[in-house]
Design goal:
By secondary structure, the chain is mainly beta. 3% of the residues lie in helices and 41% in strands. It folds into 3 domains: 244 residues, Sandwich (Jelly Rolls), CATH 2.60.120; 164 residues, Immunoglobulin-like (Sandwich); 174 residues. A hairpin with a 5-residue loop joins strand 28 and strand 29. The protein starts with a strand and ends with a strand.
Length: 673
């Protein structure tokens, strides 16, 4: 690779889908007959609301729409543990609300163990699950001299549980929880799994006793934290049963939770009701992550269950929930007008853009987000750069203006590149008025960066983005409903490029700040003086120099730079040859005494402190830089400071006044010498 430049020497020189309003869920979807469970009295589309957090659990889907309509906590199998939690906190302690849930526990004469309905600060699981724990309580057997707090430490933290226990434990038998109750085979209980006074440890076998309050006057010594109501008939009777939750807030930060269990049976229904009052301090005590942490005002809703050598299925359907905003979003990766998909081949420097679309339907009661603050987190592929307005890669901490469009109106948001450099947090998102439906759109430009991959590589990027508002986070999907972006990266061959070469105008330093043209006599005597044969910083002012910053009219710039994007990085070699300095009308070669081969001038390239190379004006190629294998890019100078170059003239018998020029030819080869 060659480049030429001219040198003058003068004697004058840059949303999973959330629930649609479900005040009465029902007709839009069908119950999957292949589930093996009868259809509940009422159910609805809860797609995107809940997510299994244990392997034994799954969502039951409507075969027509593919949307979730039921929650299978446990299959009808032995020794299983299951859990399904809401994806976002949904039980709002600052609003009156009502929830209707139906549950099914099979039809067996010998059932067990049971399931829990849980409100918690965040989805979690006990550190250890006993078959009798129902997925919420602490461990059963502990070593002698253990304390109730040690049981609580192994339970579901920061939570309130409502349980239906279908297997009789206790009566001093090892292998299960002792229940301080009236010892019926099944009951509806409530309690706080993470609180020490929910448990007692007692003989025999150092067993854990669930410590329920008892209202029976003859049993007043039982003053544990939980409550328990016996059920008349087992819920494992082949029928669906109902749990109704009603929350009434007070004006002091607390409220009253009424939980009514309705067991369907052949005669009249069996009811069990608990009324639980929480003060603001109770909410702090039971649900805060730590004693000094703020109490959460929205709780996650979860369902847990366990089986043992006796077992039953645990299935839940949602009958009714408070009205909620509908939020869903998509992201598409585009190359121009082409949608990038799993068959698209991308090359280094391909220009792309992410197109984001968020659909919001605010409730009739409040705008979305009600807090006024919505944020988006939008990761990019690790092989891409986000681009600033000037087309340069965005770096961590950079803030990018983002034009957000809603209908025919534009809004100004901003994105900040996060410390990992791979994602942008988008803030200042517009608020959607209550009752309104809106589609929010914006784009972010990106570019395939140098990646060094030597083979064709299929890529799947995940996650692809979220939007958060009012404490709830919704996952973005692709327009095809996938949670990842797929494409193919072609191997990078890279290239070795001599990006820039400098041009120079040489003059003599004159005093502290000035520059002047050398005289004919100075040229005849030689510059620098004959006694100075090598350049160094100490004698720099005796040489002709380009440090005044001037450039010739046909300048190629001030920088010398080599760019090596080859993944193999086998090294490179750069040379320069300089033609003889000649008057611009070609009438005279410097130092011509019958010899036009030049050789009277010597150009020295430096990094301001040390000599890089010295090149005579005799057309001989001279090494400038030898980059060993494994090396990378290299440059000298900047556009404001240029390459520091110096020119020496040997004594010559003659010199003619005028402007001299020479041509520099640069040769870059793809391996070191």
């Amino acid at each position: 690779m060659k480049k030429r430049c001219y040198l003058l020497a003068c004697l004058g020189m840059l949303l999973c889908t959330l629930l649609a309003p479900v005040t009465s869920v029902g007709a839009a979807v069908t119950w999957p007959t292949t589930s093996g469970y009868p259809a509940p009295p009422s159910f609805g589309d809860v797609d995107g609301l809940f997510s299994p957090t244990m392997g034994d659990s799954s969502l039951l889907t409507d075969p027509t729409s593919g949307h979730a309509v039921g929650l299978e906590i446990n299959k009808d199998q032995a020794n299983r543990s299951g859990a399904i939690w809401s994806k976002a906190p949904m039980f709002d302690l600052d609003k009156d609300s009502s929830y209707t849930m139906y549950f099914y526990m099979g039809n067996k004469p010998k059932s067990g163990e049971g399931m829990g309905f849980v409100l918690a600060a965040k989805p979690a699981a006990p550190k250890k699950i006993d078959t009798g724990s129902l997925g919420v309580w602490g461990v059963d057997h502990l070593p002698p001299n253990s304390k109730p707090q040690e049981v609580a430490d192994t339970a579901l933290p920061n939570s309130f549980a409502m349980v239906v226990d279908t297997r009789k434990n206790g009566t001093g038998d090892p292998g299960g929880y002792e229940q301080l109750s009236d010892f019926q085979s099944y009951y509806f209980g409530t309690g706080y799994p993470g609180q020490a006074n929910m448990y007692r440890i007692d003989y025999p076998y150092w067993m854990t006793w669930l410590y329920f309050k008892i209202n029976n006057p003859s049993e007043q010594y039982r003053f544990g934290l939980g409550t328990q109501k016996n059920l008349y008939e087992t819920p494992a009777n082949g029928k669906w049963h109902k749990l109704q939750l009603d929350w009434k807030k007070d004006n002091l930060g607390g409220g009253t939770l009424t939980a009514q269990m309705t067991i369907t049976r052949a005669s009249k229904p069996d009811y069990a009701t608990e009324v639980i009052k929480w003060t603001k301090n109770d909410i702090q005590k039971y649900f805060s992550q730590g004693s000094t942490d703020p109490a959460p005002r929205k709780l996650y809703l979860g369902f847990t269950g366990t089986t043992s050598d006796v077992f039953e299925p645990h299935v839940v359907a949602i009958g009714a929930m408070p009205e909620a905003a509908t939020v869903n979003g998509t992201v598409a990766l585009m190359r121009g007008a082409e949608t990038v998909d799993a068959t698209t081949h991308l090359k280094v420097d391909d220009v792309l853009h992410y197109d984001y679309t968020v659909n919001v339907k605010a409730t009739s009661q409040a705008p979305w987000p009600e807090s006024g603050t919505a944020t988006m987190n939008v990761p990019k592929g690790k092989y891409f750069d986000y681009l600033k307005a000037d087309g340069t890669p965005a770096k961590p901490g950079d803030t990018l203006p983002i034009k957000v469009t809603i209908g025919n109106s534009d809004y100004q948001a901003q994105g900040k590149v996060q410390p990992d450099g791979n994602q942008i947090a988008v803030t200042n998102m517009p608020q959607i008025p209550k009752g309104a439906t809106a589609t929010v759109k914006f784009s972010l430009p990106a570019k395939v960066k140098h990646h060094g991959l030597l083979e064709t590589t299929p890529v799947q990027d995940k996650p692809i983005g979220t939007i958060t508002g009012d404490g709830q986070t919704y996952d973005l999907k692709t327009p095809a409903g996938k949670d990842f972006l797929a494409y193919i990266l072609d191997p990078e061959t890279g290239e070795l490029v001599l990006e820039k070469v400098p041009s120079f105008v040489f003059e003599l330093k004159n005093g502290q700040t000035g520059y002047r043209n050398p005289t004919v006599m100075e040229m005849v005597k030689g510059l620098p003086t004959p006694t100075t044969t090598n350049w160094d910083q100490a004698n720099a002012d005796q040489w002709l120099t380009n440090q005044q910053g001037r450039e010739p009219t046909n300048s190629t710039g001030k920088v010398l730079s080599v760019k090596d994007t080859r993944p193999t990085k086998q090294g490179w070699h750069l040379t320069m040859q300089l033609s003889p300095f000649t008057l611009t009308d070609n009438s005279y070669v410097l130092g011509d005494n019958g010899n036009k081969l030049g050789g009277k001038a010597r150009l020295v390239l430096t990094d301001q402190t040390a000599q890089i190379a010295a090149i005579k004006d005799n057309n001989n190629a001279t090494p400038v830089k030898n980059m060993a294998a494994g090396g990378t890019d290299w440059s000298l100078g900047t556009q404001t400071g240029n390459v520091a170059a110096y020119l020496g003239i040997e004594p010559t018998a003659t010199a003619k006044a005028g402007q001299y020029q020479a041509t520099a030819t640069w040769l870059l080869t793809n391996a070191p010498e």
